[in-house]
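Please decode residue identities from the backbone states below.
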């Protein structure tokens, strides 16, 4: 009997973003289109996969919340349980690096989850949305993309969620991957991977990071502050954080993870109130752990209890801390989870 070719089944979820935006009466462009409109505009998709289109949100991506993304992760997990072969998330590019990383932490499946967007609206000359959608579907349907966690595909490049970052506000080549570049590209209708990331292995002691009630957009998540360090900062914001209701903090230090010496004491005091993760504002390279020994250096801050984020940039460390706190993780479990990125 000849084997019958079955097209891969993909779930496409659109959340809004430039790729869905058309001219608005109020001026500028605003989200109007849904996943079904976007899929219908690219007939070549029918050769790649059988696509089920749903449109849970229609917003600019800076209005997406981690609660929204938890709901998207729940929908993808349900689709995978139902036999779908991959998922496509269509959204604004401004927060793709955060969404992709959050999905990586929450979906935990070998099947590809691919996040795409566009830098130009569908009514602009040279609109990149249709090409990005097609490339994203090719990757999501590709067996070569299995086991890589969540991926981001734009401008025909394939990026790992852990490393991808929007590095430009305008160009169609806006996306970069720090610490090693993209994993591959889409060429001649095929996903070609040059390198693979090791699967994201979180410590077995860490509970499932998927919030138990991910049904709606309004689930309550613990607030985590993100504090970027600038020259001459004296850290006066830090003692206010607990009173403002923050349950954790990420400090985005200079260089390999440093703050002004006058601030070190305040970091130690904050650690006594909540978990504090130390990231680097350089974005490339790890936070150091055993090189610099002056007040405010990484050795000093780690001795005071700050957790070095390794290669994890501050934006992503913040999301992990929110989910770990929501999952009720102990300080030890949080420290172990952060250590997975060293
Ligand atoms: N402001 C848009 C958004 O993130 C930008 C984009 O989609 O490229 O929703």
């Amino acid at each position: 009997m000849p084997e019958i070719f079955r097209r891969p089944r993909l779930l496409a979820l659109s959340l809004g973003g430039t790729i869905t935006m058309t001219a608005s009466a109020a001026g500028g462009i605003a989200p109007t289109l849904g996943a079904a409109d976007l899929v219908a505009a690219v007939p070549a998709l029918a050769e790649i996969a059988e696509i089920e289109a749903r449109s849970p949100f229609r917003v600019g991506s800076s209005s997406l919340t981690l609660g929204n993304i938890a709901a998207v992760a729940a929908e993808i997990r349900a689709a995978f349980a139902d036999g779908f072969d991959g998922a496509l998330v269509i959204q604004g590019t401004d927060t793709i690096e955060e969404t992709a990383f959050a999905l990586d932490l929450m979906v935990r499946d070998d099947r590809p989850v691919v996040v795409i967007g566009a830098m130009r609206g569908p009514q602009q000359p040279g609109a990149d949305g249709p090409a990005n959608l097609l490339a994203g579907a090719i990757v999501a349907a590709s067996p070569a993309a299995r086991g890589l966690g969540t991926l981001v595909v734009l401008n025909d490049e394939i990026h790992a969620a852990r490393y991808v970052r929007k590095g430009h506000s305008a160009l169609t080549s806006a996306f970069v991957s720090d610490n090693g570049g993209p994993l591959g590209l889409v060429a001649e209708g095929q996903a070609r991977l040059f390198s693979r990331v090791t699967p994201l292995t979180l410590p077995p002691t860490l509970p499932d990071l998927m919030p138990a009630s991910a049904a709606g957009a309004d689930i309550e998540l613990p607030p985590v502050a993100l504090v970027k360090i600038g020259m001459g900062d004296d850290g006066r914001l830090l003692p206010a954080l607990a009173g403002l209701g923050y349950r954790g903090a990420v400090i985005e230090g200079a260089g390999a993870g440093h703050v002004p010496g006058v601030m070190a004491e305040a970091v130690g005091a904050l650690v006594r109130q909540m978990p504090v993760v130390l990231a680097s504002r350089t974005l490339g390279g790890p936070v150091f752990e055993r090189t610099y020994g002056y007040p405010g250096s990484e050795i000093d801050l780690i001795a005071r209890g700050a957790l070095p984020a390794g290669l994890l940039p501050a934006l992503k460390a913040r999301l992990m801390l929110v989910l770990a706190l929501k999952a009720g993780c102990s300080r030890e479990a949080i420290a172990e989870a952060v250590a997975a990125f060293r």
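Observation: The domain at 9-193 is CATH 3.40.50.1170 (Rossmann fold).
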